[in-house]
């Protein structure tokens, strides 16, 4: 190991120990690959219920990092001639329908993996297991979910789009999603310790998530390890290690060739995934590629995806211009702050990249009235009002049925309503959570900013928070 990477290992070890102790994070594991060398650092406890330590080879749920794997699978089938990105999904999947008749006719395969499909299913949690789980999910859309916008019109982070893509892959290949993932990603990439099965994960060291106790704030083990099989392609079930994700990231660094030399994806497809497919032109929603989110850090682009699981959070970052991969998992949701700190340290100190300040000042004299109202998406309601000269948001989960309520509340740690949150204007249409230091938004946590879009007759039509759109009630 060279001195530079030894310094990286020492820094991550010290940073993880300090952050985990002061923020009640039981365990953390991270890895960095740079210029033909890599390190993996583990800290703390993988499972407070058993006391099992977090090790460098401990597995964890990938969460939405899976979406880059699913997109890679789609591009593999395009190369085989089984799919075309610019063909309507219903051509391959005639049963794909939403509440609005004909709404799926214009949704192309490309829209599924670029988060521009408009499917309003972000919190649709049908509970099904086994080989027919994705079929169950798609069949349920027709009676449960509508649209947020016309395909290609907007960008909204789409669990539903990725799950439909997973079912599409099953139909054109004849394989279940887990089997296809094993054949086309895990094996050729060399992800030797990855699976989609809790039954397999229990045979080796595997971390579980934790939630803060409401009274003591101490971490307590999750009551749900993973989401239903219906959410597999969006990130509900895939499990693996830091070494596995480093191998996958390196494959995308190397134009689709795995560390073992196996061609996983063509260089053309790898490049296509990294190119801008849609840009909302607002700092809280980075430009989207196919599967990858393109985070600009000055002149450097970081291809990234983070992933929530019940009580845990993962991240995968690839920096093609500097031949670097960073990946990590922490077993409380608050570990995303540590992941962001490490990423920015790697960029600034290890790579010498200048990161400009994203938000330099606030603009106090902004008319707030265009943004007031009620915004909705699938089972989510956000009420926006003006309180003490600031925007106040109240976010409430409104479950469609008892089964989905049970799954969501366990995924979210037992809550259905978030405390009210105040926002201050950065400029018209862009707001920051009140009381946060502006430098917090320079990195990955720019997702905490909220933007409003498509103002008509003095009222915003859409709100975007965390990359997800909600739409103003038609009656307002």
Structure description:
- This protein is α+β, with helices and mostly antiparallel strands.
- The chain folds into 2 domains: 1-356, Beta-lactamase; 369-472, Lipocalin (Beta Barrel), CATH 2.40.128.
- The protein is built from 12 helices and 21 strands.
- The protein has helices spanning 3-22, 66-79, 89-92, 109-113, 133-144, 159-173, 177-189, 198-201, 242-253, 267-274, 335-350, 402-411, and strands at residues 27-34, 37-47, 52-53, 60-61, 119-120, 146-147, 210-212, 219-221, 239-240, 293-297, 300-309, 312-319, 324-330, 373-377, 380-387, 390-397, 421-427, 430-433, 450-456, 459-465, 468-472.
- Helix 2 (66-79) runs parallel beside helix 6 (159-173) and helix 5 (133-144) crosses helix 6.
- The chain is globular and about 60 Å long.
- The model has no long low-confidence stretch (mean pLDDT 95).
């Amino acid at each position: 190991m060279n001195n530079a990477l030894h310094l990286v290992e020492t820094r991550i070890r010290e940073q993880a120990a300090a952050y985990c102790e002061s923020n009640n994070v039981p365990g953390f594991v991270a890895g960095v690959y740079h210029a033909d060398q890599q390190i993996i650092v583990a800290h703390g406890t993988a499972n407070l219920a058993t006391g099992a330590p977090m090790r460098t080879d401990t597995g964890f749920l990938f969460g939405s990092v899976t979406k880059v794997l699913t997109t890679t699978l789609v591009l593999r089938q395009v190369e085989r001639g089984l799919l075309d990105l610019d063909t309507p999904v219903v051509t391959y999947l005639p049963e794909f329908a939403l509440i609005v008749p004909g709404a799926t006719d214009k949704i192309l395969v490309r829209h599924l993996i670029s988060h521009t499909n408009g499917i309003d299913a972000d919190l649709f949690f049908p509970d099904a297991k086994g080989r027919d789980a994705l079929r169950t999910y798609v069949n349920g859309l027709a009676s449960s979910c509508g649209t947020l916008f016309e395909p290609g019109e907007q960008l909204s982070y789409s669990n539903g789009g990725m799950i439909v893509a997973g079912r599409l892959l099953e139909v054109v290949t004849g394989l279940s999603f887990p089997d296809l993932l094993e054949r086309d990603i895990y094996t050729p990439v060399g992800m030797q310790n990855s699976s989609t099965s809790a039954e397999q994960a229990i045979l080796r060291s595997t971390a579980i998530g934790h939630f803060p106790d409401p009274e003591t704030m101490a971490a307590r083990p999750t009551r749900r390890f993973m989401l239903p099989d219906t959410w597999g392609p969006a990130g509900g079930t895939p499990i693996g290690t830091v070494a596995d994700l480093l191998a996958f990231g390196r494959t995308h660094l190397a134009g689709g060739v795995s560390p073992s030399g196996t061609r996983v994806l063509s260089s053309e497809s790898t490049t296509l995934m990294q190119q801008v497919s849609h840009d909302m032109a607002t700092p809280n929603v980075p430009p989207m590629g196919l599967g990858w989110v393109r985070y600009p850090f000055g002149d450097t682009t970081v291809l990234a995806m983070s992933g929530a699981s019940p009580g845990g959070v993962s991240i995968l970052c690839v920096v093609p211009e500097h031949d670097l991969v960073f990946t990590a998992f922490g077993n409380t949701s608050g570990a995303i702050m540590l992941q962001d700190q490490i990423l920015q340290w790697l960029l600034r100190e290890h790579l010498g990249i200048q990161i400009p300040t994203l938000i330099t000042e606030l603009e106090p004299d902004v008319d707030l009235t265009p943004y007031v109202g009620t915004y909705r998406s699938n089972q989510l309601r956000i009420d926006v009002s003006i309180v003490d000269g600031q925007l106040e948001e109240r976010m409430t989960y409104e479950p469609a049925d008892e089964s989905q309520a049970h799954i969501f509340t366990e995924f979210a740690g037992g809550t259905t309503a978030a405390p009210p949150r105040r926002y201050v204007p950065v400029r018209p249409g862009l707001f920051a959570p009140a009381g946060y230091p502006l430098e917090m938004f320079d990195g990955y946590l720019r997702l905490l900013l909220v933007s409003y879009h498509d103002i008509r007759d003095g009222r915003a039509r859409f709100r975007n928070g965390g990359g997800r759109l909600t739409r103003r009630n038609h009656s307002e």
